[in-house]
């Protein structure tokens, strides 16, 4: 038996705001999108490195205000990168927690992503 990494599904309400946040601010790449037909809700995949997220406008797919905990290396460099972009809605900090250095961000839909570099 073998398990692979989970892919969180995050609820979104605006494709434009999702692209601005995930692509322009966090530096993800837009992999693909699906709609059953024109005017229907969007379901899309974004990634950065090995981190993959699904974004959905579908009502039953996810709950606004979800939380995703991401283990990573280089949180200070990531912090410097995103803050250098001058995103008008957020300037995240980095906190030292007992489990590592954490940079938490909220997307425009209330979903929290915590990027953590564990202490070794």
Q: Tell me the span between the first and last alpha carbons.
A: 29 Å
Rg, nearest Å: 15 Å
- Which sequence of strands runs across the widest sheet? 1-4-3-2
Main beta-sheet annotation: 4 strands, mixed
Strand tally is 8
Classify the secondary structure makeup into a structural class.
alpha/beta
- Helix content estimate: 10-25%
The backbone outline, from C-alpha atoms, is globular
What percent strand? 35-45%
Q: Provide the residue-averaged pLDDT.
A: 96
Describe the structure.
There is one protein chain. This protein has 120 residues and is of the alpha/beta class. It is built from 2 helices and 8 strands, in the order E-H-E-E-E-E-H-E-E-E. It has helices spanning 15-25, 75-84; strands at residues 9-11, 29-34, 43-48, 51-56, 67-71, 95-97, 100-106, 112-117. It has a 4-stranded mixed β-sheet, with helices on one face. A 4-stranded mixed β-sheet has the order 5-8-7-6, covered by helices on one side. The longest helix has 11 residues, at 15-25. It is globular. The mean pLDDT is 96.
């Amino acid at each position: 038996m073998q398990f692979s990494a989970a892919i969180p599904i995050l609820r979104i309400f605006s494709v434009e705001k999702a692209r601005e946040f995930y692509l322009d601010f966090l530096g993800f790449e837009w992999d693909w999108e699906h709609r059953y037909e024109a005017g229907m809700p969007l379901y899309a995949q974004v990634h950065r490195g090995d981190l993959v997220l699904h974004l959905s406008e579908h009502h039953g797919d996810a709950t606004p205000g979800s939380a995703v905990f991401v283990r990573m290396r280089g949180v200070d460099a990531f912090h410097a990168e995103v803050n250098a972009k001058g995103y008008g809605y957020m300037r995240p900090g980095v906190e030292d927690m007992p489990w590592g250095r954490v940079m938490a961000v909220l997307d425009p839909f209330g979903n929290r992503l915590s990027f953590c570099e564990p202490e070794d």
